[in-house]
Automatic annotation (TrEMBL):
Highest classification ranks of the organism: Bacteria, Pseudomonadati, Planctomycetota, Planctomycetia, Isosphaerales
Protein name per UniProt: Sec translocon accessory complex subunit YajC
Topology with respect to the bilayer: Single-pass membrane protein
Gene Ontology biological process terms in this record: protein transport
Similarity annotation: Belongs to the YajC family.
Compartment annotation: Cell membrane
InterPro entries noted in UniProt: Preprotein_translocase_YajC
Record bears the keyword Transport: yes
Length: 126
């Protein structure tokens, strides 16, 4: 990898200046750099842009599929159980202490990850 970075100035030095009599020589040296620019743009998209977009899409799907009694971890590190969901106002009520019945209301965006999704069978039996 360091060799590739050291070779970049050589790419610019090889083209040189166009002679005064032929202006098209300078154009061909810039066209030689076009594949490198295209590779950099494609690399940037697939390495830097696309993975965060896919991760955010999966997160939104996970939040949309939450239901009562799912166990989650908030972005602040709070372990809780979903008590109710209000999709109209983007709120979620979480039960944080089962013994004392402590419930807290949060925005849906605080859901970090789903620990234990409930199945339809276990939700009906509870």
């Amino acid at each position: 990898m360091p060799f590739l970075l050291a070779a970049i100035p050589l790419l610019f030095a090889q083209g040189g200046a166009a002679p005064a009599g032929n202006p098209k020589e300078g154009v061909s040296s810039t066209l030689n750099l076009l594949p490198y620019v295209l590779i950099f743009v494609v690399w940037g998209y697939f390495i830097l842009i696309r993975p965060p977009q896919q991760q955010e899409k999966r997160r939104r799907q996970m939040i949309a599929s939450l239901k009562k009694n799912d166990k989650i971890i908030t972005t602040g590190g709070l372990y809780a159980t979903v008590s109710s969901i209000d999709p109209d106002q983007d709120r979620i009520v979480l039960r944080v202490d089962d013994d004392r019945g402590v419930k807290m209301t949060f925005s849906k965006s605080v859901v970090g990850r789903l620990i234990e999704p409930t199945t339809e069978k276990s939700a009906d039996s509870a």
